UniProtKB/TrEMBL annotation:
Similarity annotation: Belongs to the SIMIBI class G3E GTPase family. ZNG1 subfamily.
Catalysis: reaction(s): GTP + H2O = GDP + phosphate + H(+)
Disordered as annotated region, ranges: 230-250
Domain of life, source organism: Bacteria
Name under which the protein is recorded: CobW family GTP-binding protein
Domain CobW C-terminal: 258-352
Keywords, alphabetical: Chaperone, Hydrolase, Nucleotide-binding
UniProt xrefs under InterPro entries: CobW-likC_sf, CobW-like_C, CobW/HypB/UreG_nucleotide-bd, P-loop_NTPase, Zinc-reg_GTPase_activator
Transmembrane segments: none
Organism in which the protein naturally occurs: Kaistia terrae
Its job: Zinc chaperone that directly transfers zinc cofactor to target proteins, thereby activating them. Zinc is transferred from the CXCC motif in the GTPase domain to the zinc binding site in target proteins in a process requiring GTP hydrolysis.
Length: 365
């Protein structure tokens, strides 16, 4: 086991998700061939009776646990827990090599949020594991259709820290560009990388995350870019009647009722009051909030507090040693399904003692 920069010696669990056939196993194989990721155990959740993927991931035979009892998100969270704890025990007993990281590849039709919830909410699991980057693969040939047809596909994109566009080698460049625009609109805080099967991924995909002190500033800077993106998307939305737009551009923000927006604070927040507001929001709307990430300006603190969560779970807040260049004030990126950003913004401002904005929300997508 390795001790990370922040002194946390838990095993990092990376969730790898993406729709059926998107290229998850292929990406995982390439990642596991990197020397720096050699000490990675794998759990693959197969939908259906016969699991084949484990035959494809040869490098790591013994450390693979195959969950066959259906979709991980609805009925086998106990299996996931058992599988994780069993791997942990076996490595501690010396039956299998020690591992410092675990990759959980989900079935193509899973909503990954409950997997993250299992990892972060179960006290035993939380003691041994922490959630690292959630990586979602979306392929160009089928990605758009899947996004339109399946809410699971939208959710996979919405919760991701990294979005991988696959199969651009067999697609038209304009389709790849359009998919990228859709992904940016759906999850403006994620990093988007194009990686086809012939390209070797960087280990940073798994390794560089918000827990890494060196990467933390960069990671937060990316979240803050979301503000510009949601803003641009918002403006775009109002523009869509103009005839000079390419046909694709008309519906780039069409992703059901999932949308990203940014809450901004123009004065320092009271930590207790903010915590209460957030608890109330998550109690009531935890299922609708797919992802929440941000930087908080807290009364009495010179530097910002980083906060992030998936659905109703908020990870332990972390400090950033200084404000990123050019950034001041609270910025909270919310990706939610079926929530009216104007109402969330109103309650955020009212509860935290901030003046209401004239004209309502200014930064919504
Ligand atoms: N041309 C091309 N083919 C790819 C790429 N990535 C994956 N494939 C192929 O797509 C097919 C499906 O890839 P997998 O890695 O098995 O996809 P998966 O997401 O694990 O699939 P399921 O586990 O069935 O959901 C395989 O034949 C891969 O070789 C890519 O970037 N370009």
């Amino acid at each position: 086991m390795t001790v990370s920069d922040d002194g946390d010696d838990r095993i990092t669990a990376n969730v790898l998700t993406g729709f059926l056939g998107a290229g998850k196993t292929s990406l995982l194989k390439r990642l596991l061939s990197l020397p720096s990721l050699a000490g990675t155990a794998v759990i693959i959740n197969e939908f259906g009776e016969v699991g084949l993927d484990h035959l494809l991931v040869e490098a790591i035979d013994d450390d693979i646990v195959l969950l066959k009892s259906g979709c991980i998100c609805c009925n086998i969270r106990t299996d996931l827990k058992d599988a994780l704890l069993s791997l942990f025990e076996r490595s501690r007993n010396g039956e299998i090599p020690r591992f410092s990281r675990i990759a959980i590849e989900t079935t193509g039709i899973a909503d990954p949020a409950p997997i993250v919830a299992t990892l972060s909410a179960d006290p035993m699991l939380r003691h041994h594991f922490r959630v690292g980057n959630i990586v979602t693969v979306v392929d160009v040939p089928n990605g758009l259709v899947n996004l339109d047809a399946f809410v699971e596909s939208q959710r996979q994109v919405a919760v991701a820290d990294r979005l991988i566009i696959s199969k651009s080698d067999i697609a038209a460049p304009e389709d790849t560009a359009y998919l990228r625009a859709r992904l940016e609109a759906l999850n403006p805080a994620a990093e988007i990388l194009e990686l086809d099967e012939t390209m070797q991924p960087d280990d940073a995909l798994f390794v560089r995350d918000i827990h890494d002190i060196v990467a933390r500033g960069q990671e937060v800077a990316r979240w803050l870019k979301a503000e510009t993106r949601t803003h641009a998307a918002h403006g775009h939305h109002h523009d869509h009647g103009h005839s000079h737009h390419h046909a694709h551009e008309h519906d780039v923000n069409r992703h059901g009722d999932i949308r990203a927006f940014v809450l901004m604070g123009d004065a320092p927040l009271n930590w207790a009051r903010f915590g209460l507001w957030l608890s109330m929001l998550l109690n009531r709307h935890g299922g609708e909030i797919l992802r929440l990430k941000g930087l908080l300006d807290i009364e009495g603190n010179d530097s910002p507090v980083v906060i992030q969560g998936v659905q109703h779970l908020i990870h332990k807040p972390m400090h950033l040693d200084r404000w990123p260049d050019g950034v001041t004030g609270t910025h909270l990126v919310v990706i939610a399904k079926g929530l009216d950003p104007v109402l969330v913004e109103r309650s955020f401002r009212a509860f935290n003692g901030l003046a209401q904005l004239a004209g309502g929300l200014t930064k919504g997508a």
